[in-house]
Amino acid sequence: MIEIGSIDFMPDWAKKGAGVTVGKTRPERDSSDRGVHPERKGGKGFAASRRNFPSKPFVRGAQNRFDARPAPIDAEVKVLPEPKALGTIINKLRQDFHAYKLKDLAYFLLDNPASVLLKVTIKDGTRFHQCKACGFAAENEDELVEHILAAHLGDYYESREIECEAPKGNFNCVAKCGLSGTLLGPPNMHDFNETVKETARTRYPELSEAEYRSHIEMVRDPETIEAWRQSALKRRVFVAKGAGEGAEEMTRAQAEGVFRRTILPSLKDEPKKLMISADAAAKSPSRSLQKLCRDALEAERRAPYGMCFALHGAFHHRKLNLFRVNDSRGPEFVTSVEYRPFDAEHAIAELSRIANFIAANPCQPKAVIAPDAETQKHLNWLASTGHVVAFTNGVFSPVEKFPKYGPQWQKPIAARAVELAPESAVESASEPAPVSGAVEESIVAEEKKDETAPVVVE
Questions:
Q1: Which of 78, 82, 50 lies closest to 454 in space, CA to CA?
Q2: Is residue 185 classed as helix, strand or coil in its secondary structure?
Q3: What contacts 24+ positions apart, CB below 8 Å, involve 54-61?
Q4: What residues make up the domain containing 368?
């Protein structure tokens, strides 16, 4: 069995950042969890970790803009699976013969913000500016530009460190960053202001330039000035990626200037409907957008109707098999297998024995049905060809309109097998050890294949 919990749904663009990977599938929920907020249950993910929606810290000299609550946005939010994550799930389902509970897949996606897509339809005229490269969104266009420069300049320009001549002139002092201890250079150097701006923007984005300058110290001792001279023997330049040998070397300011004119406009968008991942919404500087999306995710985690509805449509579109268990209102499952009746009369004896035993004893684990390797091969063949239903919790049931699922169907084998199962099945099941002491085993994992290209739902 290919476990969905082993899949990394992090989009390619997000892997360049902190390298966060998704967690494991959440355990099966019982009715006692209903109506209980995930935070009170200790759950992980979008709702339980409010720090996913960071706010800029209060800094000295700055107005505390977070005294008031964020202004509400009149908008409708639909919770959908992120296309690449959905495509990966579909590919894994097609490589597996087990049946997955739809609600478990919905919770799996909801527990991983990068795997959730939010469709925000704004009704009150609020306008958002969005980055086409990663989905980052802000109400202020300047904030979007700052983000694109900080996050995507490196996608088009590579930095190199080259040797240069020692700076000439008499220097009585050098500026030192009071936050990091970095030597910024003498204030009378021609590129001093550019160095300060770049340091403030790239290393301390939560501070304005004026606030950052208040942390700069002037150091006059000769040892520090000489240390700066030695560090100035190398400087960093920027070169367009793929330019080859002899490419023009630019300072960061020059590279940013070219980037602003030629590339940045193509990365900006002002959509009427905002399509944004839950992960990107968490990183937006707009606290109103953060709250809007957080509330939508928390409501969906309490009852994932929207995500289940979207998954149902996507799986149906991809020709996967959707069915309910126990009755017409039972939990919904999905599998890539097409179920069909098994003609036990015209099959080999071993296959007939296994199929008849499962029909008489639904929801039994593999340890009971197939105690040896040879029998397990027959059982796996029946499951992969759709003649029995294999659930991801390790139990098997007969093919019916509403296959049986749940502990209520696990009748004691010692009492029921003699009555319902064929004689050969009872003997086979009782030979290895007393059936009452059998322990449920995991399903033998199928050979894992390389992930294929994600499928995007139209």
A1: 82
A2: strand
A3: 54/282, 54/283, 55/287, 56/206, 56/285, 57/206, 59/206, 59/207, 59/211, 60/211, 60/214, 61/210, 61/211, 61/214
A4: 337-437
> Does residue 277 sit in helix, strand or coil?
strand
| Closest to 81 measured CA to CA, from 38, 102, 110, 103 | 110
Residue 380 dihedral angles phi and psi, to the nearest 5°: -65, -35
Measured CA to CA in angstroms, residue 420 lies from 144, 179, 232, 416 at distances of 68, 77, 87, 6
Q: Note whether residue 199 is domain-resident.
A: yes
258 and 158: one domain? Answer: yes
Tell which of 300, 318, 350 closes a domain.
300
CA–CA distance, 391 with 101 (Å, rounded to integer): 9
Same domain, 107 and 172: no
**For residue 296, which of 53, 14, 60 has the smallest C-alpha distance?**
53
Alpha-carbon distance of 373 to 378, in angstroms, equals: 9
Indicate the pairing of strand 157-163 with strand 364-365. unpaired
Q: Please report whether residue 320 resides in a domain.
A: no
Residues 222 and 290 in one domain: no
Successive 10-residue mean pLDDT values, the chain, 458 residues:
54 44 44 44 41 41 53 94 96 96 97 96 92 95 93 92 75 89 86 85 84 90 85 82 83 90 96 95 95 96 96 97 97 97 87 94 94 94 96 96 94 50 40 31 33 36
Q: Is the CB of residue 369 less than 8 Å from the CB of residue 354?
A: yes
Sign of CA dihedral 232, 238, 243, 248: negative
Structure tokens at 243: 């330019």
Q: 285 and 250 share a domain?
A: no
> Which tokens belong to 68?
């008031």
